[in-house]
Write a structure and sequence with these properties.
By secondary structure, this protein is of the alpha+beta class. The protein has two domains: 3-75, Orthogonal Bundle (Arc Repressor Mutant, subunit A); 105-247, Endonuclease Chain A (Endonuclease, Chain A, 2-Layer Sandwich), CATH 3.30.870.10. It contains ten helices and ten strands. Helix 2 (13-25) crosses helix 3 and helix 2 (13-25) packs across helix 4 (41-53).
C-alpha cells in the first residue's frame, strides 16, 4: 500500500516492504517480518540494518528473542528535511555550473508525465508571466493532481501571473480550471480548436502535442524552444489573438 511512496522518499524496494510490514506487525521477529513482507529472510536482515541506520526501525530482546519494531513515520519527514538541507548546501554551486554551460538558444523535448513536471519546473525557474495559447486545462489530468497543487502554491508565492487563451470547449467541458488558474482568461473561437497548445514565458516557447480538454495523452510530448527573439515574437502573436477574442480582459498588456 505504501511501497511506492516509500520508494519515492528514498527507501529501496525491500526496505519499503519491510518497513510497511513493521507498521502492520508492530514488534516482530525476522521470520514473521519475512512472511508478512514477502522478502527473503536473508534480505530482511539487510533491510532492517539499513532501516535502523536511517532511524526507521529499532531492535529489542524479549525473553532472549531478538525482535524489531518500527519508528514513528514522522521520522520520514525528518529524512526528507535532512536531504533537502544537504541539497541546499550544494545547490547554489551546482546552479552556477549549470548556468555557465547554458546556450542562449536551444531546442529539446520532454516526454511523458515526468517530462511535463520538468516543464512546470521551468515556469517556477523563470518567474515570468506565462501566456497560454490553445490552453486545454490538461493540468486537471489525475496523474498531476498532487504535483499541480504544489506547483500552484509555489507559483503564487513567486508572483507568477497567467494569461490564458483557452480552447472553446474548455468553457463547458472543464470549467473548474477557470477557478484554479483565475483571471485573466479568454476563449478562442470554436473553429480554431486543435490538439496542440503553446505556452510562452521568459525566453521559452513550449509546444505541446497529445493534449485534449482536461487530460494528457498516455505519452505527452513537449517541444522546448529557448530563444528570446522567438519568445518575444510569440508574445506579439498572443497579444493579437488576445485583442480579438472574447472573455475577461487583462488589467495589464504585454
Amino acid at each position: 500500500m505504501y511501497q511506492e511512496l516509500l520508494q519515492k522518499i528514498g527507501l529501496s524496494l525491500n526496505e519499503s516492504r519491510v518497513y510497511e510490514a513493521l507498521l502492520y506487525l508492530g514488534e516482530a521477529s525476522v521470520n514473521t517480518i519475512s512472511v508478512r513482507s514477502k522478502v527473503h529472510r536473508r534480505n530482511v536482515y539487510d533491510s532492517l540494518n539499513k532501516l535502523m541506520e536511517k532511524g526507521l526501525a529499532s531492535e529489542t530482546f524479549v525473553k532472549g528473542e531478538k525482535l524489531f519494531k518500527p519508528i514513528d513515520p514522522e521520522r520520514l519527514k525528518e529524512i526528507m528535511k535532512e536531504k533537502e538541507t544537504a541539497l541546499d548546501t550544494f545547490l547554489p554551486e551546482m546552479k552556477k555550473l549549470y548556468q555557465s554551460i547554458q546556450p542562449e538558444s536551444e531546442a529539446y523535448f520532454f516526454r511523458g508525465i515526468e517530462g511535463f513536471k520538468n516543464y512546470l519546473q521551468l515556469i517556477l525557474q523563470e518567474k515570468k508571466t506565462v501566456y497560454f495559447i490553445g490552453a486545454k486545462a490538461f493540468w486537471l489530468d489525475p496523474r498531476l493532481q498532487h504535483y499541480v497543487t504544489h506547483f500552484d502554491k509555489e507559483r503564487r508565492k513567486s508572483g507568477i501571473k497567467f494569461k490564458h487563451l483557452f480552447d472553446y470547449e474548455v468553457k463547458t467541458e472543464k470549467p473548474e480550471i477557470l477557478k484554479l488558474v483565475g483571471p485573466p482568461y479568454k476563449f478562442l473561437p470554436k473553429q480554431y480548436s486543435s490538439a496542440t497548445a503553446v505556452d510562452i514565458f521568459g525566453d521559452y516557447v513550449v509546444m505541446f502535442v497529445g493534449v485534449k480538454p482536461g487530460e494528457l495523452y498516455d505519452e505527452p510530448l513537449q517541444f522546448i524552444l529557448k530563444s528570446k527573439l522567438l519568445a518575444d515574437g510569440y508574445r506579439t502573436f498572443f497579444q493579437f489573438m488576445w485583442d480579438h477574442c472574447e472573455g475577461e480582459r487583462a488589467e495589464e498588456e504585454i
